[in-house]
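Why does residue order matter? Because the sequence determines the fold. Keep that principle in mind as you read this record.
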Amino acid sequence: MESQDSALHVVVGIDGSTSSHAALRWAVSHAKLIGADVVAVAAWDLPGAHGWSAPAVDADFDEEIAEQGLVDEVRTVLGESGAAHVRKRLVRGDTVEVLLSEAEGAAALVLGNRGLGGFRRTLLGSVSQQCALHATCPVVIVRPTVEVKA
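Structure:
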């Protein structure tokens, strides 16, 4: 996908969840305020690459399809014109490591929080928690808005 440059930028993690969609919208709004670019980052890795949990090859994974999926996801969330202003990066590696690396030198790293309901809703996910602890830039964790029907 596209490479990262040294321009002022906001990195946002995308994983298909509602909370990552909220994070993308927040990142775009924030970037407009500070005159920054937005870089949407999705990480992928082969099962078992960081342990013995699965075979080392995922026969179903197709990087080109995944790249198109990222493009389509950003387009769905932001519309055609909004998506045109977002750089998209599909990067192989551990999600936390990829996001921390991509966020080096960024104005902010924006992540969604997949609240699980009840007490667990107040807890951060492992990716957002690790990024908040180790990022070299500010980290914003966005919860999806909940629509209340009257």
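The chain has four helices and five strands.
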